[in-house]
Q: What sequence folds into this?
């Protein structure tokens, strides 16, 4: 009997390995086909299934380089940063430092003063699920001022002006994607931990997970990819400033798979926090939202995802907790359609 049990265990291990290998080959085939059709767009993909990691990459670091993109090549993960910020919020909830239904009033920097009719109305969860009703940063105007570094003109003073001059929450309780909301969440985290956002994300996520190729302020490394706008022109990586919690982390496929591992492990502090972010805080006919996380459900699956677009790169992260898989897709060009089409194809033909 013992021999039979051992045999079955080995057989199961071989079966799982073969299954994983089959998935990785099929994903690689999809990515390779896309690259052959779009050879100017570099791609890095990381996939995890039951703790087994798989990576596939196509393209070079830049047009002059012969160095190929790999799992350690640096990209802007852009708004995927928001799920890291919401994870920090959820960790603070677990530590009893805040509650998701706390009003934001007492957690904002002292320079921010909500007008009387807006006081004790906006909850932390409203910011994190994009339904606060607050006006957002005017990105179009910022791009006109500085096409390479539009967020450079966003300061604590300019943010305070937006908040302090707001007299009405025109669409409170309705979904409207918000950069300012996640900037404020970063400042709330700073308030409860009495540290700056850079210190907090390092102490709570980057260092514990040994994400050695995930960067905040200093990302001048040899394996950095070149960013390209939709027309193919070279675009600078965003420099660190007050908007960091909304989208300024730089990382790679290897480190983001490490993050996915922690998210899918409900015994880790990050995994426990992720479960809080997966609760539904907003729902309408078009979408369901957790804390920074888009929730998509079909007959057999519930998946959690977040996309990101900087001025010159696009990315998307997605995972299925019940089936224990996760995927990260990184592109060295701003191309939201391509990254969404890639995920849809992989999901529909391989993962579903």
A:
């Amino acid at each position: 009997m013992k021999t039979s049990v051992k045999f079955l265990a080995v057989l199961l291990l071989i079966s799982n390995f073969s299954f994983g290998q089959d998935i990785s080959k099929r994903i690689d085939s999809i990515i390779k086909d896309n690259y052959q059709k779009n050879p100017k767009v570099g791609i890095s993909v990381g996939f995890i299934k039951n703790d087994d990691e798989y990576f596939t990459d196509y393209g070079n670091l830049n047009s002059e380089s012969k160095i190929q993109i790999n799992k350690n090549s640096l990209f802007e993960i852009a708004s995927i940063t928001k799920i890291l910020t919401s994870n920090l919020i959820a960790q603070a909830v677990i530590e009893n430092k805040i509650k998701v239904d706390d009003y934001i009033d007492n957690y904002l920097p002292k320079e921010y003063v909500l007008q009387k009719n807006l006081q004790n109305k906006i909850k932390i969860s409203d910011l994190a699920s994009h339904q606060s009703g607050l006006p957002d940063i005017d990105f179009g105007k910022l791009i006109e001022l500085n096409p390479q570094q539009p967020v450079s003109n966003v300061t604590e003073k300019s943010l305070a002006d937006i908040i302090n001059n707001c007299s009405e929450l025109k669409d409170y309780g309705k979904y409207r994607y918000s950069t300012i909301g996640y900037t404020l969440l970063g400042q709330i985290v700073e308030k409860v931990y009495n540290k700056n956002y850079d210190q907090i994300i390092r102490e709570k996520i980057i260092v514990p997970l040994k994400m050695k190729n995930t960067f905040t302020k200093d990302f001048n490394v040899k394996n950095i990819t070149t960013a390209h706008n939709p027309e193919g022109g070279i675009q600078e990586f965003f420099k660190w400033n007050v908007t960091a919690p909304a989208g300024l982390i730089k990382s790679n496929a290897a480190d983001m798979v490490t993050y996915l591992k922690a998210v899918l492990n409900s015994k880790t502090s990050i995994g426990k926090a992720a479960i809080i972010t997966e609760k539904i805080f907003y729902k309408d006919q078009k979408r369901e939202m957790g804390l920074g996380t888009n929730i998509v459900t079909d007959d057999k699956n519930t998946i959690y995802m977040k996309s990101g677009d900087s001025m010159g790169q696009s990315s998307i992260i997605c995972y299925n907790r019940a089936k224990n898989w996760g995927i990260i897709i990184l592109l060295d060009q701003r191309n939201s359609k391509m990254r969404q089409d890639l995920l849809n194809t992989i999901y529909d033909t391989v993962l579903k």
Residues 24-351 form a domain with the Beta-lactamase fold (CATH 3.40.710.10). Confidence is low (pLDDT under 50) at residues 11-19. The longest helix spans residues 2-37.
